[in-house]
Design brief:
By secondary structure, this protein is an alpha/beta fold. It has helices spanning 18-26, 38-50, 62-73, 87-90, 95-100, 116-122, 152-164, 176-183, 187-191, 217-229, 238-250, 255-271, 295-304, 326-344; strands spanning 6-7, 55-59, 79-83, 103-107, 133-139, 169-173, 196-200, 211-215, 283-286, 307-308, 310-312, 315-319. α1 (18-26) packs across α11 and α2 runs parallel beside α11. Residues 344-352 have low confidence and may be disordered. It binds pyridoxal-5'-phosphate. Pyridoxal-5'-phosphate (PLP) binds at residues 61-63, 87, 139, 143, 172, 174, 200, 202, 211.
Length: 352
């Protein structure tokens, strides 16, 4: 007997809802790269406004927002400061180095969040043999850090430390709206202290694709040649931008449900013997060794039981999203329990 799989591998696994599909079908479109697509223009204006910047650009992926942001903000041979577990450090196949010839200086933040002292340490005060600090990158929320939210004060202090040293700040806001909903701090307050910030439409917002990169008019003007260079200038992209506008109307406040579901999932997993803190947003990382298991093997066993998790190294990740409701979370905990309790004879912290 097979059970319907519950896919917690990523919030990218969402499918467009009927309402979103209707918005896509109804979208007015034109040639995006000639600035003639009204749906793209509307989305960009809206996101620029949302994050308190002058202008924005629609790109096919969030990775491309990071590539373009680094390219515009740096010169070859400069240092880009980022957390060691940041997406730019761990999940972009070295794109910043390949495309922009920069050095990535990776610092150990506290679950992805470092402090102004890390910026100070990366600034070598013009020493002639040292590479210049060219850019500071922050990730909000922090994916590999566990969906963690930067506290506003620390975020502002890091941005100020960068600016004091003449380095701009670029924010990978793939899950910015999760941070907004979890913190109650408006997107504009996260946008204002930094030079560029983007959000992904294809994660918790539930769109098929797309990301929007915002900054000053001068920054976006410089970003345009890069958008063309890396193949990100599109044509009738308004169909995807319309999905984005629909998501901003309908899928932002509901992220709170994903966060509740992540908390419910984490609580259930603690009962099964995993050592977890209450998640700050929609991401839960598991250590299979907590229940005496190994990541590759446990991931495969859970697929057999109808639960998909993703894996990075020795850890497994569960991400809650639009397409998994509360009943799905309860069922996922039951299925994981059947696997780890059944196989280990554990069933609690002590048993593990
Ligand atoms: C997913 C993700 C990206 C990349 O976005 P894509 O749209 O998948 O290219 C970048 N940064 C973070 C933190 C992410 O989670």
């Amino acid at each position: 007997m097979s059970v319907a799989p519950i896919d917690l591998s990523s919030d990218t696994q969402t499918r467009p809802t009927p309402g979103m599909r209707a918005a896509i079908a109804a979208a007015e479109v034109g040639d995006e790269q000639q600035h003639l697509d009204p749906s793209v223009t509307a989305l960009c204006e809206r996101v620029a406004d949302l994050v308190g910047h002058e202008a924005a650009m629609f790109l096919p992926t969030g990775t491309m927002c990071n590539v373009v942001g680094v390219a515009v903000h740096t010169r070859p041979g400069e240092v880009v400061l980022a957390d060691r577990l940041a997406h730019v450090s761990r999940a972009e196949v070295g794109g910043a180095a390949v495309i922009s010839s920069v050095l990535l200086e990776q610092v150990d933040g506290e679950r992805g969040r470092f402090g102004p002292e890390a910026v100070a340490a990366a600034d070598h005060g013009g020493a002639i043999h040292r590479p210049r600090l060219g850019l500071v990158m922050l990730e909000q929320t922090h994916n590999f850090g566990g969906g963690t939210v930067w506290p506003l004060e620390r975020y502002e202090a890091v941005a100020a430390a960068a600016h004091e040293r003449g380095a701009p700040v670029h924010v990978d806001g793939a899950r910015l709206m999760n941070a907004v909903v979890a913190s109650g701090v408006a997107a504009e307050r996260w946008g204002r202290p930094v030079d560029a910030i983007w959000l992904d439409l294809s994660k918790g917002l539930g769109c098929p694709m797309g990301a929007v990169l915002a900054g000053s008019s001068a920054f976006i003007a410089e970003a345009w040649p890069w958008k063309h260079r890396v193949g990100g200038a599109m044509r009738q992209a308004g169909m995807m931008a319309a999905a984005g506008s629909y998501a901003l109307d309908h899928h932002v406040e509901r992220l709170a449900e994903d966060h509740e579901h992540a908390a419910l999932l984490a609580a259930g997993l603690v009962e099964l013997g995993f050592a977890l803190e209450r998640p700050e947003t929609n991401i839960v990382w598991l250590e299979p060794t907590d229940v005496g298991r190994e990541a590759v093997e446990l991931q495969a066993a859970l697929v057999e039981r109808g639960v998909r998790l993703s894996r990075v190294g020795a850890r497994l990740r569960a991400v809650t999203h639009l397409d998994v409701d509360r009943a799905g979370i309860v069922a996922a905990v039951e299925r994981i329990g059947a696997e780890v309790v059944g196989r280990t004879g554990g069933g609690g912290r002590d048993g593990a």
